[in-house]
Structures are given as structure tokens and as C-alpha cells.
Amino acid sequence: LxxxxxxxxxxxxxxxxxxxxxxxxxxxxxxxxxxxxxxEPGSSSWISAIRSTSGLDGPxxxxxxxxxxxxxxxxxxxxxxxxxxxxxxxxxxRVDIFLVETETLWLLDVPPALVSVEAEDAPRVLERNKIYxxxxxxxxxxxxxxxxxxxxxxxxxxxxxxxxxxIPLGEKGMMVTPWDLDNPxxxxxTDPEPRAEGSRATRGESSKSASAPEHExxxxxxxxxxxxxxxxxxxxxxxxARSHKEEECPSAALLTSENLQxxxxxxxxxxxGNIFQPKLAAYRQIPVLTGLFLTQEPLSSAGLWKSGTTEExxxxxxxxxxxxxxxxxxxAVFPDAQEAPGAAGGGRLEELWSYRCDLTRGLRVSSxxxxxxxxxxxxxxxxxxxxxxxxxxLACCWSPKNPLWPERIFRCEQGVxxxxxxxxxxxxxxVGMSCGSVAIYDVGSRNDAAFLDSSASLNKHTGPVWQLxxxxxxxxxxxxxxxxxxxxxxxxxxxxxxxxxxxxLMKLKRTEREKKKSPGGQEREGGALISxxxxxxxxxxxxxxxxxxxxxxxxxxxxxxxxxxKEQVLSTYRGHKGPVYKVSWxxxxxxxxxxxxxxxxxxxxxxxxxxxxxxxxxxxxxxQDIVWSPKSAFTxxxxxxxxxxMWDLSVSIFNPVMSQAASPGxxxxxxxxxxxxxxxxxxxxxxxxxxxxx
Length: 694
Prior knowledge:
Elements: E1 34-39, E2 46-51, H1 72-85, H2 88-92, H3 122-139, H4 178-182, E3 214-219, E4 230-235, H5 244-248, H6 250-255, H7 258-275, H8 277-284, E5 293-298, E6 305-308, H9 310-330, E7 350-355, E8 364-370, E9 378-383, E10 393-398, E11 408-412, E12 416-421, E13 428-433, E14 438-442, E15 452-453, E16 465-472, E17 480-486, E18 490-495, E19 501-507, E20 516-517, E21 523-524, E22 536-541, E23 548-553, E24 557-562, E25 569-574, E26 580-585, E27 592-597, E28 602-606, E29 609-616, E30 623-628, E31 635-640, E32 643-648, E33 658-661, E34 668-673, E35 679-684, E36 689-693
Antiparallel strand pairs: 1-2, 3-4, 5-6, 7-36, 8-9, 9-10, 10-11, 12-13, 13-14, 14-15, 16-17, 17-18, 18-19, 20-21, 22-23, 23-24, 24-25, 26-27, 27-28, 28-29, 30-31, 31-32, 32-33, 34-35, 35-36
Main location: cytoplasm
Protein name: Dynein axonemal intermediate chain 4
Pfam families: WD40 (PF00400)
């Protein structure tokens, strides 16, 4: 048989059985059978019955009238008999085969939870769901209706009552002093002797009761309150059990407790905020509180500060103005502000406060760095650089919350020469020392020990680390590299591992000296070089390409180098006659950079030109530090000796727009712009960092 579709294509199913072409083909005989599929009651098997039919026999009888099912042996025997007894005409006769579908045998019947909308019982199901929804709406407001995800019934609530005897209550009162509350026991830690029978009881004291046994304690009074002794009635159950250590020294355990220290920190923050409120308001650029004015006179030796009325505030403000005028005469505020000839609107600096304490007095401020995540956190490095002998240094973290004492103090074996905060991990502070060591501290921890230290490294610097910097590897990458430049002529990259170690990126070599001409016109060579290595004094990385950096040397030269091209100098800028103290790229115009030197000059350079663009010289003093203004590409500030100068190239290139002197007896060593306000941070050689409002 072949089956064709409407388009005439042959879609006859192919047989699953593929006969072997090499096997002999049996003789085909035309034999037709009628097949019936029957189910035998009482068994789980199906039996097929085949009966030959012909056209002469007439139409097939119904299944109920046909012969009973036969076994396979009987069918084969019947087939042989049929083949032998049939004639050729009967064999050519057409045979009809009827296939009857049997009943379905159900092994598992799970009724569905969904009913088709076209089903016969769909209206009945919809009506039942509507009735259930209305029933739920009627019970939703009832207190007994609880929506649960289980099919268990809620048990009935049971009330249980307990009856006991009433607890006797009583009122007691006594008169105590603050000294009695703080010292319930005497200094020896033992109960004092009971009071005499004839002594007078304290006012308000009641009699003892049997239910609350009490004993009397005589508490000593401070010496300034006389020799009188007050008595105190304390129940025995109220006094806690004390350990042997607490009995020996109860005040020491109280003073060393963490809760007391935390409370003291909070109280200290409140007092500092009240005392420095006008200064902090100017620092934050917010209005000053006028309803409550805090004077500068302590009430007592305890150091508490009093608040007065409006009239007292006005008098105090008048007195403060007089004191400021007196300070101006002494140099506390810059007295001799100068403007450039022809410059309009010279600025003025006013000191808000100064970060200083007894620990930093007499030390030189070598470097400053603001935290990238918290700009209020300022790290300051201190060191005393004496050629006769190096002294210990400090690295302190200050905050405007307490200008009188640092938040963290890290003591170093040698003077601190450079420090910087990490951007990826703002809690890490890298510190460089005068001995060539590099240490990393964790400012988030109370431990003042170094987190990582290079003292055990065999490749550490042999000269002072004059500057270090955390530099991003790529523009979009958060990974950082710790770079250092030292007086031993090496620019290194430090690897953060259990033992801090470094690799050399560049060894700064001295340049050949120019031949000098003698008075007779003959050229003569200069003296021989003492060392082939040039001391590195400072460096700065390009703001857009961290692979390019500038390095200043003690020869007065500036070298442009690359981190990828080791031992190769890209450009050399010659213009200074003394050691270069600072180089700084312009953050807005990245092709320009500044340099300052001990030759009293500041030079503006272009990276594609080895000749200086502009040279700025005013006072006869070495320029210790320079910094670009974060708000203007034409403005920079420099410190020279005891003066601070602000230059605006859009106004004048010959004179600074502002030049002011600091306090007498102190020379400025470093300068930094505050990141979140219009303030300058000026460090000097006396251990103070002043916060000046511009």
C-alpha cells in the first residue's frame, strides 16, 4: 500500500525493519486474514485471532458472533490447512481486514485541578468557585477567621491561672551625696565598721524590715568636704560580688573600661564642637550659631566651658576682636598682606586653628596627605633631621572633630619624610622614613604597630625616602602600585606581600658636566663625579597616563621617565641651579607642570619643550613646596621661608597676587589645599599645621 497527500507526494511510512539483502527471500503467497484483538478475562495479556475470509463468505460477522480466540499453535495449523485447501480463485479473492480498538487500561488516574472552559461541567465549576469566594469575603472580617497554609484545625485556647501569696512592698528613702554614689566602699575595699548605736541617722532613713536585711556602711568623704562622715543604708543583695582584682583597685578597672573610654570620646567631641563652633562653621562654610555663644573662659580647673546670654556674647565677641588685633601685632594672623602692582582684589588668609600638641612640638612637618574617602582625615608626618644624629619621628592622623589631639599616633624609629593614603583601601597609610624604610599602617585599627614593614627587606633604600605615592595601574583599574623615590637614586615599586619588598623601575644617573672655558679661551673639564647615581628628591605621575612620571634630582634636573621603559629617560629638563624640591603636573592642562628648587625660583614647563616657559622669582628664599589650585588652572601657591605666595597667571606673571608672612620664628615646609572647602593647610618646622581660610 502507498499513501499520498493532497499534493500527490508519497508519505507512506517506512518500515522499521530493514531486511538483510543477502538473506534468501521466501516465496510469497497471497494469503489474507481477518485479525481480531481480544482481551481474555482474568488475564493481563492480549490475544490476536486471525481468520481467513473471502468474498464468497459474505460480510464479516460481528465480533460477538465470531469464533473464539485461538492460540498461536492453532493459528499456524489453521494457516497451513488454509493454504493447502484454497484454490487459485480463492487466493486471488480480495480479503477485508478489520482492526478493532480495545478498551483503555488505566494504571493511575489523578483528576486535574483545572477544567477547560469548553468542558461540559465548566458552568458548574464556575458557580462553585463563585460561592466559595463569597463565603471567604463574609468571614474575612471575623476575629475567628485565620488564613493558614495547613489543613489542620486550630486547637481551642485554654486559660491557666496561678494563685500565689501577695509580694510585700515597702518604700525606703535616704540622703546620699555624689561621693557616696561613686564610693560605696572605702579605699581598702572592705566594709567599714558599723556606726555607733548613738549616732544620728540620715534624714529620711527608715527602719529595717525582716524581708530585706540591710547593713550600714560609713563612706569616707573627700578632704575638701571636711571630716564629717555620712552613713548609707544599702541592702546586702544590692552590692554585687567583686573579684579580688576589683577589690584591690576598683578605680583602675573603671578607668580602663571600654565603655568609659567611648563615653569620654563622645564627651570630648561635644566639647570640641562647642568650643570651636565658629571656626568649624567657617571651615564647613555654614552659618555660625548666634543663639548660643560659647566663651573662652573655663568655669573651673576641670576645663568646662560656660555659655552666656546675648549681651555676654557681644562683650565676648568684642574682646575676641581685641585679642585678634593683638595677635595681628604679634604675627598670629598675617599682618603684612601685599598685592602685586596692578593686581585687583588680593586675597587674605585668616587662621582658623592649628593642629599641634606636646608630642609634635619642635618637630618638622615633612609631608601631609588627606584621606581619599574621608577628606577631613589628615595625615601629617613629623621628623627632626639633624646631621649629627637622627631622632624618632611621628605619623599622626588629625580630624577637625578634635584639633587639640590626634586621632591616631604612630611612632616611628626614624623621622618621617613622606606619607600617602591609599585610594583602593583608604584605611592603609604608607609611610617613608629617613633611614630608607617603608611601613604601611592600618588607621582603622587601634593597634599602632606597622601592618607591613620593609626593615627585613634586603633591597630596601639606603637613603631617605623623599616621596611616595599610591598610583593606579590603569585608568579604569582599581589596583594600585606603591611608588617611591629615594636619595639613593632609585625609583622603586613596592610589592604588598607578607615581607614588604620592592623592584627597581629606574636608577637616576648623573649627567655629564659641561666643559668650562678658562680665561685664556681653552676648555677645561669639570671635576670627577663622586657618585654615578643622582639623588632623587621628588616625583609626580601624569594625571591621565600613570605610566609617565617626572623625577627631580639634586642636580637641578627634571627627568621624564616611563614605567614600561626601564633605564631609559624620555626627556631631560634643565633650568634649576639647585636641588628640585617639588614637581607637580597641572590637573587641568596636563601638558604643563611646575617645579620649585632651592635656587629661589619656580619654573613653568611644557612637556614637549625642554626650555622653561616662565620663571617666577620674588623673595630671596628657597621654595620648599608648591601646589596647584584645584579650582583654577592659572593659580598656584608656593611657600618660601616664612611666607606664602599665591600666583594667578591670568592676572600677572611678574608678581604674586598675594604674599603674606607666617608667625615669626617659624619657616613653612609644606602646603596642601583642603579638598572639601576653601582652606589652606600650612605646615612649619615647629610641629604645627595651620588651617587658614582664604
